[in-house]
Every structure is written in structure tokens, then in C-alpha cells.
Amino acid sequence: MYKSFMFGKPSIIVTVPEACRRVLFEDDAFKPGWPTATRELIGRKSFVSISYEDHKRLRKLTAAPVNGHEALSIYMQYIESKVVSALEKWSQMGQIEVLTQLRKLTFQIIMYIFLSSESEDVLEALEKEYTKINYGVRAMAINIPGFVYHSALKARKKLVIILQASVSERRKKREENQGMSKRDMLDALLETEDENGKKLDDEEIIDTLVMYLNAGHESSGHVTMWATIFLQSHPEYFKIAKEEQERIAKDMPPGQKGLTLKEFRQMEYLSKVIDETLRLVTFSLMTFREAKKDVDIKGYLIPKGWNVLVWFRSVHHNPDIYPQPKEFNPSRWDNLVPKPGTFLPFGAGTRLCPGNDLAKLEIAIFLHHFLLNYK
For the whole prediction, is pTM greater than 0.90? Predict the structure, then answer.
């Protein structure tokens, strides 16, 4: 553990698995401690800001529509069609900037899943605002022209206006047509209710959308890019992954169009490629918690009110846990079941990323077709 002073508060940086596990899992001792900029930009009623009880309720209401078996089955066909279309388009473009194109692709996918929107003009405009927000989420909360946070706040206001219009319009349509079937995640959020019949209000829905739409394309785009780079840099791993995907494609039942969850679960080696990419890159570097009381972790006192930064990359690059940690080696995952607190690409405990399964599905579908056809 290291003492520091960040974002205006004394902080402890946690870098060892046992401490990481306790900070992430012990909700009676720690609460969300994200900086002001993150809370304001992602939303006061989003997962990063709300209390343990509210988080538990919101997570329960949104888990199935995002990560449930039925939802993933529905999303697969659309994701695959967009991946195939994008790869064919890129193959005709000559030289491309891969990350830019991947971010456009993943944003298009997440926008369709949540809002059924495919307008290129709308997508491009929204992605620009999200880019500004991303620059501001970990900046100092200085709301003065010329500072990143100021620009990010303006971007959030524009996003909220657009999303509020979508929510209001959808509510009106659902009231006019009581038998309207669910089309996307927004319908699911409007429809879902807890055991007491309480539904999500507009602010909860909008902040949930802001968070999911942001996380749902940034992380997927970056991790997909790095996975393709690592595979191209290691022909021996590329060959193994390609052979697995060719075998899966060959064994698909006659007449079946596209992948299903059955094929996805057969991608054992590709899953190791993705996990190794997540470990090595660690797209989400840290999470912020705050001590609700004085906490002793192996003789080290964390005072009440101090920020606790769980530094994921230090764990993922720890040579005592992962020998030769800077080396890309999917085979290290053969028969490896990570101990608690040693593999945290999506966080852990009650704060585990609620879209982790969707993200891995999206990455796997892209890599499946990339491996089959890349030259």
C-alpha cells in the first residue's frame, strides 16, 4: 500500500490481491469514492455514485436485460452482422486507423442494443460528446472555460438532452400502445420494476444509459484492438486461435446462419486470448473506494474518509502471480483458476462491471471473423 494525495483527498493505493479483495468485497467498510468529476459526468444516479442498497437494486433490475442468457442470444445476430459488414468494408479501404474504426463499430452496436438507433449522423455526434466526457472523468473538477472538466460537463448536458428526448418519446409510445413489445434496452429499463412495483425514474434511466453507452464501446474497442495486435505479433498463438475458430465454423449444423451461444462457449482458446489481453492491457486501471470507518488490513490502518484506489494493473503485472507478466501468453490460462483479487479486469464483488459478459461476447465475435478471414 502507498500513501498519496489525489483529487483533493488523502488516499491509499492498494496493489496486493488480499487488500484488493477486501476493499472491493467489504461493503460494510468501503463505499464508492470516485472523484467529483467522475460522479458528475457519469451521473449521480449511475452505478459509480449510488449507495450500496441503491446499487444492489439497480444492478438487479438491469443485470438480465444486459447480461442474461436471453439477452445475449438476441444480441448475437445483430453484433455478428455488423462485425462482418465492417470487416468487409475495411478490407476495401486500404490503410485504416484500427482503433477509430473499432470505436465506431462498438458504439454503433451498443447504441442499437440500448436505443435501436442506427443513424450515422446521430452516432457520430454522440460519439464526439462521449470522447469529451472520457477526457474529463478523471480530471480535476475545475469548471472554468479552457479546462477539460468544463468541456466534458457541456458534453454531458448535450447527451442528457438527447437521451431525455429518447426516454420521453419512448414513454409516450408505450403509453399509447400498451401491448408494445420490447425492442431494446431502453424498453427493458422502462418496463422493469422491483419487488415493490417501483420502476426506474428518468434520471436513473438516463444515468444508466450514459454509463453503459460509454463503457460499452470504449473498453470493447480498445481490448479488441489490442487482441488483434497481440495475435498478429505472435503467429504461433494466431495459428492455434484460427484453427479453433475454423473447427467451430465447420462443426456448425447445416443451415444454421451465424453464431449462437453454443459456438461461443466452444471458444475455449479464444477465451484465454481475451483474458490474457484483459490482463496485460488492463483497460480500466483502477477503481475508487472510500473507507466508511477505520479499517485495518494486515496491520496497516486505513483511516475513515480516506480514498482507497485499487490499482488493477499492479496486480495483473505482479510476477509472483503471473510469471513473466509483460509477456502475452494465452496458454498461462490453461487449467488456471485465478484466486480472489488476482484477476480484476471488470472489477469484483458487488461492483463487478454489469456488462462484462456482453463485452466479452462482442470481442469474441469480432475475433472469430477476424481470425477466419485475416490475411
Answer: no
